[in-house]
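dude i think i finally got it to work??
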Amino acid sequence: MHVIIESPYAGDVEANLTYLRACLRDSLLRGEAPIASHGLYTQPGVLDDTVPAERALGMRAGFAWRCRAAKTVVYTDRGISGGMRLGIEVAHDLGHPIEYRELGHQ
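look at this
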């Protein structure tokens, strides 16, 4: 099953990327095929999340994947960021199923 992963990115980027990798692992071990655009599009040389226009471009590209996914999975151990809230709102507005998960660590 294809799923969209929502987890924090901005702020403590290194800790959030470590957490994202744990989220991806959790999803894969559940037999899912996850996409986490915030971990892909923010790699060096792709888009700069600190540049508003590039951040918006990356978010639009990530939202475009929703039509291919069965649901949006929101990992909440590190809280829900503004970007995650927007992703949740988009999923809700599209009638896309949303599942909240915790890994039990940060």
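The chain has one domain: 2-101.
im so relieved honestly
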